[in-house]
Design brief:
The chain has 2 helices and 5 strands. By secondary structure, it is of the alpha+beta class.
Amino acid sequence: MCLGIPGQIVEIISADMQLAMVEVGGVRRAVNIAFVVDDEHPVESCLGDWVLVHVGFAMMRLDEQEAAATLALLSELGEMQAEIDSMQASAA
C-alpha cells in the first residue's frame, strides 16, 4: 500500500527546479514542491510549510495540527516506521 505522509519543508534546495528538503520523522529527503506552489504561494514562501509527501512529491499543504494528527494516527497504525524505512532505503 502506498500512502502520503506529512513532512515539514526545512530548506529550499532549488527555487528554479521547485525542489525542497522535507523532514519526515527525523529523515530528510529532497522532494518536488511544484504541486504546492502558485502565484499566491511562491517557492520561497514554502519554508516551514507542512506538506503531504507521496513518491517524492509534495502533494498538498497541511496545517500543523492536521499534520500532527495524521502522524499520530499513522504511528498508532504502525505504518509510519515502514514508510520512513522505505524513504531511507530509497535515499541511499
